[in-house]
Structure formats: structure tokens, C-alpha cells
Amino acid sequence: MFERFTEQAYQVVDLGREEAEGLGHRYLGPEHLLLGILRDGTSGAAQLLRAYGIQLETARAELLSLARQGVVPPPRPSPATGRCLARWALTWRRSGGPPSRPSAPPRWGRRPGG
Questions:
Q1: Which domain holds residue 33?
Q2: Given a cut of 90, is residue 102 above it in pLDDT?
Q3: What is the CATH number of the domain that holds 76?
Q4: Burial, 48: exposed, middle or buried (Cβ in 10 Å; 0-12, 13-18, 19+)?
């Protein structure tokens, strides 16, 4: 799957990972990818979101609000960011990041039945 990612897709995932780490989250979820899209700002998706008035700072604040309400997991005080984020970062360091993409996705854990 990851070998089919474009440069921009890799960039968005990495920015989403940074957002997750910055928020103290120990996982990489769709909410972080949305922040990555907004932070990248060059894609059609980012332009569409901005056209509807969705800004990075607002989306980040809303995510923190959802965490306080218990809708998404709250930030954890641990300095460790969790295995999935650490493995993603390690994969990036080892591969040198784009354009030298990893040959296999980082092992983030398997879903039951997957």
C-alpha cells in the first residue's frame, strides 16, 4: 500500500504524525491526517477545506475540545508517543523519507481478522 503513495501523501501522513505527537496523542488517526492535509495546504483537499472556512488552528482546537469531551482519546502526559508513531518515525529515518519510500509499511499492529 505505502509504495503507491505519492510524495504529497507521504508528506501529509508525516505532518499528521507530527500533529499527533504535538497534541500528545499516541496514535495516528484520521483526525491527525486531516490536520496534516490542512498543514500541507497545497492539495485540492486543503483548498476545498479552506474554501469552507476550515483552518488548521480551528481544526486543532476542535480536536482538543473533542478530546476533553471524551469523543477522541485525550493527550497522554507520557513523553513517549506510542509504538505506532515511533515506528513511523523510524521508518522515515531509515528510508530517508521521500523519494526513497519504505518497501513495506511500518507494523502498526494488526486488527482482529486482518
A1: 2-95
A2: no
A3: 1.10.1780.10
A4: exposed
66 pLDDT above the threshold of 80: yes
**For residue 22, which of 59, 60, 49 has the smallest C-alpha distance?**
60
Are the CB atoms for 35 and 15 separated by under 8 Å? yes
Number of separate domains in the chain: 1
| Amino acid at position 44, single letter | G
| Of 27-31, 82-86, 104-108, highest mean pLDDT | 27-31
Residues 6+ apart with CB under 8 A from 105: 1, 2, 91
Cα–chain center distance at 88: 10
**Amino acid present at 77:** P
